[in-house]
Amino acid sequence: MQDPDHVELVSAIENGDFDRANEILTTDHENKYIHPVGVLQVTALQMAAWQERVDLLERLYEKGADVNVVDKIGRSALYYAAHNGNPDVLPLPVCWGRTPLHQAVKNNYADVVRILVEGGADVNAKDERMITPLLLAGSAVNRDNHEEMAKFVAIVRILVTAKAFINIIHPDTGTTALHHAAMLGSAKATVILLSNGAWPMFKCKSSGSTPLHIAASAGSIETLTALLEAMQPHNIDTRDHLNRTALHKAAYQGHRECVRILVNHGCNLAAVTKTGVTVIDAIFAHIPRPLAFLTDILDSCVRTVNNSPLEKDENITVDFSILAPKHQMQMAVVTAVIVAASGIAQLAILQHPLVETFLRLKWARLRILFFVLLLVHLIFVIFLSIYAVMLVRDDPECVAIRRILLISSCILLIHNMIQVLLEPKHYLRQLETWLSLVCATLTLITSVAGEFFKCDVKSRDCWVLHSISIAILLSWMQMMLLIGRFPMCGYYALMFSTVLKNILKFSDFWMSLVRTVVMMMGEYEYEDLLSADEKGKAAFLPITSRIVFFIFILLASIVLINLMIGLAVNDIQALEREGHIRRLLKQAEFVAHLERVTSHKIFRSNWLHPRFKMLLHSRRDIPTKIMLTSRENYFPHMSHITDSQRVICADLIEPLLQLATKTSFQNDNLTDKNIWDTKLSSMLINLEDQIRELKTHCYRSLVNQRASKICGFRIKKP
Hints:
Layout: H1 4-15, H2 18-27, H3 44-50, H4 54-62, H5 77-84, H6 99-106, H7 110-118, H8 133-136, H9 146-161, H10 177-184, H11 187-195, H12 211-218, H13 221-230, H14 246-252, H15 256-264, H16 279-286, H17 290-299, E1 302-305, E2 315-319, H18 332-340, H19 353-392, H20 399-422, H21 424-427, H22 431-452, H23 463-483, H24 490-503, H25 509-520, H26 526-530, H27 542-568, H28 572-598, H29 610-620, E3 625-629, H30 631-634, H31 643-647, H32 650-716
Helix pairs in contact: 1-2, 1-3, 3-4, 3-5, 5-6, 6-7, 7-9, 9-11, 10-11, 10-12, 11-13, 12-13, 12-14, 13-15, 14-15, 14-16, 16-18, 18-28, 19-20, 19-23, 19-28, 19-32, 20-22, 22-23, 24-28
Keywords: ANK repeat, Glycoprotein, Ion channel, Ion transport, Membrane, Repeat, Sensory transduction, Transmembrane, Transmembrane helix, Transport
Organism: Ooceraea biroi (Clonal raider ant)
Subcellular location: Membrane
């Protein structure tokens, strides 16, 4: 049977009625109320520790209460004090328990943790789930509360200083203390852990995320920078279980500055997840104004080289490392941009001077292969046209022409099959692929058929002539599109195709009627309208009629045709810009295709001669960093011009120079701003020190004056 006064004592302490508790303790002459009571076997000492009542603790301790007694679930008085964050209570009990330290760390009580550690608590103690106190640090912290974050940093510093195991792994989540610090965005705690040997690239068990992934997802710039400085550059693209990099995580959350920092440290923009999402895809989908953001990043890759004050802005360095990731094909990033872009507006990023220069250099290395393909196609088109004429004339000497067509059509078919096998989703949606496949197939069929039987040209049902007619039309169309990849001719071919699409768009009856009338203007017969009749009578109004007819021709034919062109091409500059973008698009696709073909494992096998492999490598890759000289300065020093500068024309060098000057100007302004901010801060600090000294001086003067008055009054009083 429990004593009612004993139960009332514990209840009074628990409910804060300390006067009643003191009265009960005063009547307890036998010290019988220091023992456990109730279902949970709680002691009055434990309740006093929980309520932070030092006076009650002293009275109970004097009565012989055991500070090491635990309740039914194993909690001691020290546990209750640590759980409630009462540092004043802790020095009284002498206890080496482990659980109180866990609880103090979990509840972010830095003072309690310090007292426990100074008292000799085991910082590497494990609870029943094998969790150490360091793994509980920050579990109940609000990252937006600066005071709580400061306590968290203090706890981490205390535990690390006390030789806590830094890289202990949480048994449930597989995370470390560094993961928790990165999740909270605490750069100070991250630096403390890293400086004491924390693993920056350790993957957690649940998702495979590293602290870098977590910091990038949280958007903590300082924490991300601290992690990047502590890790090896080749580990920056470490993947999680879904093949996502830290750059993916930052882009998914829309953290622009984190993305910028990661890219500047060498993250791969073409990294692909298991679901096929590249970093460029994530940027276009989640970053506001992605084109402006990517443009700023590309701008930062062009910088000036100031060898001396006199040579300022004359030499620039162009860094292509952002476009050419390591251990991957150099066209991977450009290809990712092309795939991610949803329209011609987003493809305008290809016009950036850095990207266009990169494509120009890649084109200069691989253009020999393009010229070979163009030569094969030119031979194919010319000999196909000659073969059609000879076939119509029934020329018996067309056998050699037919066999040349057979070989060239086979080469084109093989080339198209390689394209489709390498990138089926992309090339099967391209008009050029189908044009080339159809015309090469038709030519191959007609060439093979011509070797075995002869077609009667006069017969209307001769399928060979129909096939060749279709093949000739398609081959010349393909030839025009192929020429569109030339840097000099690309505008005209692509503008022609765009104008053709616009002119052929007649959506209603009246447009069709106008088109028919314009086409029939050339059908007017001059002799029938204006010549004399058969009787020799002169024509009616011979001079006036001719003037009116001439004006009609000017108005009806020339003006209307130009009006049609003006309606079709409503914005010449916009069309030129679009033609430029589409030409760069076709050029980039072709260069990427050639790079994929030359990077195939067939061309890396051992049966190839080493010189041939070196030749392919030299034709495939370009240097990721080049130096350019202003056009105004390199003519007197022609010997210093690099091969890259000979390839790059003036219309690209000048924008690069302007871009480098702009970047240098922005950096100078930023440096000047930082210098001014530093000077202003130092001025404010000096001013505060002077004000503090002035206040101290005034206070001392005032005290001396008052003291002198008091002393004078006392002296005069006797």
